[in-house]
Amino acid sequence: MSLKNFSLILIILFLGVSFFTSFSFAQEMPEPLVCADPYLDLINSKIELTQQSQAILELKMFLALNCVDMPEKLKKLDLDKFYQDRFLRQHELKYDMKLLADVHRMLHGNIDKIKDKNFKEVYWAIKNNDTTGLKGWYKDLAQGIIQEDRELVKKAINSRMDKNLKLKEDIPGKLAELVMVDLYIAKYGEAAAKKFTEKRIPAKYWVELVFAKNSQAIINRITRDLTLFDLVRICNEPELANRIQDEDIKEKSLDKSLQSIYDFWGKYP
């Protein structure tokens, strides 16, 4: 064998060994270490508390209203408890769910399922745009719905509520907002309801929940966003705001004048 051929063989062998060695080394290289999320345990533990908050309970309550005549769905989503007075008292939710259910049925035209016959009269008064036959809070409610006037609806609900209730918040205002959102959903549909509730928290989530294919996923997302809102303050870490999916909550999490979600939750102009 000539020296030239021998040298060529050596070069080929050297290149082959080098390629095999580098390939094997690349194959055996461990994946780069991913730093553990220092906030993960804190987020998960705080989420459990947020799940029991009044904010999340209110979201579920609106969903329960929209499933009132769907017993199987109520049970599947564990929402039937919202029609139990004991549960409402336990969580200090001062809402008359049976009354709200009849308002919901009336707005959506399900008059055969209305329990309070007075709401059937309200339904026909609204349909005929004539409230002369109504009295008291029923008349105010009907006029508020006809005129799409939140303040009139609030006035009606306020006069209907038990005056012995010690309210720490504007319950009539919250319920009036609920009625108005339900009215827009029933009367105008999804697009108009979304436009009406834009930037209005939590009203905009009610609309999202009603039309969502997976309502639990929506609730889980909002629960996490509200948890992160709190942690931005607890940990004094504005960077956590970048993990918030909802742009409105993200914006509010950076507003240092807001100390709690309840500084903006249900606060309508």
Q: Topology of this protein?
A:
Layout: H1 3-28, H2 40-51, H3 54-66, H4 71-76, H5 85-90, H6 97-107, H7 117-127, H8 136-147, H9 150-160, H10 171-188, H11 190-196, H12 203-211, H13 215-234, H14 247-253
Helix pairs in contact: 2-13, 3-12, 3-13, 6-7, 6-10, 7-8, 8-9, 9-10, 10-11, 11-12, 12-13, 13-14
Q: Could you please describe the fold and organization of this structure?
A:
The protein has 269 residues and is mainly α. The protein has one domain. The chain is 63% helix and 0% strand. The protein has 14 helices and no strands.
Q: What is the element string, with H for helices and E for strands?
A: HHHHHHHHHHHHHH
DSSP strand tally? 0
- Compute the separation of the termini in Å: 96 Å
Number of continuous helical runs: 14
Let me know the largest β-sheet. Answer: none
Class inferred from helices and paired strands: mainly alpha
Cα-atom Rg, whole angstroms? Answer: 29 Å
Low-confidence stretches: 19-34
Q: What overall form do the CA principal axes indicate? A: elongated
Percent range for β-strand residues = under 5%
